[in-house]
Amino acid sequence: MSDILKGLEPERVFHYFEEICAIPHGSGNEKAISDYCVAFAKSHDLWVRQDEANNVIIRKGASVGYENAPVVMLQGHMDMVCEKNSDVDFDFEKEGLKLKVEGDFVSAEGTTLGGDDGIAVAFAMAILEDDSLEHPELEVVITTDEEVGMKGAHVLDVSDLKASYLLNLDNESEGQILTSCAGGMKSRASLPVRFIPWEGLGAELKISGLKGGHSGAEIHCGRANANRLLGRLLFELNKELNIGICEMSGGMKDNAIPREAQAKIVIRPEDLTRAEKIKEKFIADIRDEFYASDAQIKIDLKIDCNKEKKFDIFHPSDMERVLFIIIQSPNGIQTMSMELPGLVESSLNLGVMRTEEASVCFSWAVRSSKKSLKYYISDQLEYLTEFLGGTYWYDGEYPHWSYRSHSPFRELVASVYKEVTGKDASIEAIHAGLECGLISEKMPKLDIVALGPDIFDIHTPDEHLSISSVERTYRLLRTVLSRIKN
User: Which helix (H) or strand (E) holds 246?
Assistant: First the structure.
């Protein structure tokens, strides 16, 4: 393992973070990182349990004088979102991340960093190995597949857990104490398509250069969605030219705003000039619409002008249905909270689009802090899909985490934050989903807060973690634990 992060403080936190980054740990590929967590616990003579879903629970007894203090759960997830730039050759299944340090930030070369939520695991390990730290009994719960529907938390057995306080470490904004979050689900649709032969010039259409981002934490930023832009451009071309579509795809994860989308299309030779003009007008319009959020949008249209060929294209009526669902399905913010000004209440993101053998498939991340609105959005997608002759289903559902009006733990953490930093913490709700909702359903008496260091542009290859924020957050964690005595 390299020592890119050697010398950064807190030294043990970054030591473990670098070890974590060296192990492939994308969602669904977590056995190795889970075994690493188990090996860590055993090497420190700590009680550990690993379940069939590869969730890991590690327990450490209370320090002297803390035997009667409330048990504290430290919680995060071990999987990461695997996104990379299209020009980067990288295998998330086999390779460790290529870390780099620039100023106050740690990032990875051309890929996501996995600070969401590898830094939580690193915090927990540094705390567990530190025998000089005074603390109550600790239960460290590290879950799997959080990024793809919180699957690990869904099956987590809490029957032997004793915690009264839960400190979730999956926030990405220092100074925020989170007290509630949205629930969500993954909505899926499949539209059947028939193929017919058609003669023309083959062309590749690609939309790239978008900012992207987390479909919960950054949905309010108004960033462009590459899948939606591709559907809109194909609609404009077909409206004017009568094109053919061979295949289309975009996005990698439904919980990430898609940064790229592409299609293989067929254009008649006599329409080449008009196609280029339509593309140029479209990109001018889109850059004007998204100049504040996505200034680097690119649209490339590469046409093979050598000679006409026969291609298999979507049947025209099927193509119309595919374009209709992309353009007409709801997307982005749907409602804003009336109780908490500025908080997104419900949203959805068309994150993934794929052409299969005889269908085009779509996947949305649906989120809402109101259960009824979550199901209403799902109903809209189901109604639209089935009206167009497709199949709809959802999975990966998780509940929202409700605000608790009386929270001694929140008051303690806020007080310690003020003591450590000299500033008042911001008590917030978040539109992104956290495992707190699922765990609180299983353990309803838990008093819960969530916090973490500054991590920017998560779920994108621009993700970067603040070194100084990690140091301040670790100091806060240690102080909070030392104050939970009575």
Answer: strand 244-250
Q: Assign residue 462 a region (left: φ > 0; alpha: ψ between -120 and 50; beta: otherwise).
A: alpha
Provide the whole-model pTM: 0.84
Buried b (16+ CB within 10 A) or exposed e, 86-103: eeeebebeeebbebeeee
Q: Are 461 and 84 in contact (CB under 8 A)?
A: yes
- Provide the pLDDT for residue 340: 83
Cα–Cα distance between 130 and 141 in angstroms, integer?
Answer: 18
- The token duo for 256 is 């990430």
Q: Which residues pair with 203 in a beta bridge?
A: 265, 303
Q: Where are the beta strands (DSSP E) in 154-243?
A: 165-168, 176-181, 183-192, 195-208, 213-214
Q: So which residues are the catalytic ones?
A: 79, 146
219, β-bridge pairs: none
Burial (0-12, 13-18, 19+ Cβ within 10 Å), 288: exposed
> 390-401 burial by CB neighbour count: b if 16+ within 10 A, else e?
bebebebbbbbb
Specify burial of residue 357 (Cβ count, 10 A radius: 0-12, 13-18, 19+): exposed
d(CA 363, CA 256): 11
Residue 450 has pLDDT above 70, yes or no: yes
pLDDT digits (tens, 9 = 90+) for 109-148: 999 999 999 999 999 999 999 999 999 999 999 999 999 8
Mean of all residue pLDDT scores within the chain? 96
443, pLDDT greater than 80: yes
> How far is it, in rounded angstroms, from Cα 441 to Cα 32?
29
Asked if residue 186 lies in contact with residue 230, where contact means CB atoms within 8 angstroms, the answer is: no
Which amino acid does the sequence have at 300?
D
* 288-333 pLDDT, tens digit each: 999 999 999 999 999 988 888 999 999 999 999 999 999 999 999 9
Closest CA to 432 of 25, 146, 121: 146
Give CA torsion, residues 194, 200, 201, 203, to 10 deg: -20
Determine the residue type at 89. Answer: D
Residues 6 or more apart whose CB falls under 8 angstroms from that of 288 comprise: none
Asked if residues 258 and 226 have their Cβ atoms less than 8 Å apart, the reply is yes
Q: Given this model, what pLDDT does residue 1 score?
A: 53
CA torsion angle for 352, 460, 53, 47 (degrees, to 10)?
A: -170
Query: With 60 as the cut, is the pLDDT of residue 411 above it?
Result: yes
Residue type, 453: P
